[in-house]
Amino acid sequence: MTATARVGEFEQMRPHLLSVAYRLTGTVADAEDIVQDAWLRWAANPGTAVNDLKAWLTTVVSRLALDRLRSAAHRRETYVGEWLPEPVVTGFDRDDPLAAVVAGEDARFAAMVVLENLTPDQRVAFVLHDGFAVPFSEIAEILGSTPESARQLASRARRAVSSAPPPAPEHAEVVGRLLAAMASADLDAVVSLLHPDVTFTGDSNRKAPTAARVIHGRDKVARFLLGLAAKYGPDRLLGSSVPALVNGELGVYSPGAGATDDAPAIMPRIQALTVRDGTVVAIYDVANPDKFTGSPLR
Fold first, then answer.
1. What digits encode the pLDDT tens for the residues 46-94?
2. Which of 130, 161, 192 is the last residue of a domain?
3. Which residue from 7, 34, 151, 298 has the highest number of Cβ atoms inside 10 Å of its Cβ?
């Protein structure tokens, strides 16, 4: 196989490999690094005989991702505040290269948040088996365990992941109504569109303003949202926000806005929302610029 043919064959598999790596690590930056590393390993051994290149590269990517997951716990010990996955922001054009990476319910932001609570081995076993139909015998080799152990890990992960709300057909409508209610500073309307158990989770690592701790309950979340609108000005705040697909579902990204005589600067951020029972049950505010790799803010 010529070098050009090898590059072409690998590029055909890149979306699949990025999908695997992103689901395993939760960050676009790590996923891109891992896929590039997999390419370098394959390119460095042109004489290597591989019967099933897709399976071989998936294994390489999974092992690299597992190494990152196992070392991530130490890095997060020094992280300030809540940790959220890195969102993937795309336009409504399905030809966006990143759209393929988050295609499918298992890459919704709510599902990715739940994956963050799994152990590295649970995450690998679950994602590879349930998401990509990798046999437990192959997963066991990646984990250095037995097929039965890999099966049990995936089962425990599956029970945990089942807690994530399923996709809501009314998601876009509810999010649009919430944004409109915020624009009009209508407290009652905002409250009515929030689930009684709604949470607001901010992630900034102290690099941008957001909620320092998780906010619980619709009254507190509503007042927090309208407080932001009052601080920055509802027209400026919403005027700097652009509806976009965040991990395949309607969310908001804001490139930010400069300070004015009457209001402070608006820092860039990405917001993912989860809808349940016709109301917003979770708002995730990613304001850490280090997590903008998968967005137009990169």
1. 666 778 889 999 999 999 999 999 987 767 778 999 999 999 998 776 6
2. 161
3. 34
* This prediction's pTM: 0.91
Please report, for the domain that includes residue 258, its CATH number: 3.10.450.50
Beta-carbon count within 10 A of 258 CB: 10
Domain co-membership, 15 together with 155: yes
- Structural domain boundaries, residue 25: 3-84+115-161
pLDDT at 257 over 80: no
Number of domains in the chain: 2
Return the CATH number at 122: 1.20.140.160
97, part of any domain:
no
Q: Which residue has the higher pLDDT, 209 or 61?
A: 61
**What integer pLDDT is reported at residue 234 of this predicted model?**
66
Select, from the ranges 31-35, 77-81, 249-253, the one with the highest average predicted confidence (pLDDT): 31-35
Q: Looking at the structure, tell me whether residues 8 and 145 fall in a common domain.
A: yes
Q: Please report which confidence band the pLDDT of residue 2 belongs to, taking 50, 70 and 90 as the band edges.
A: confident
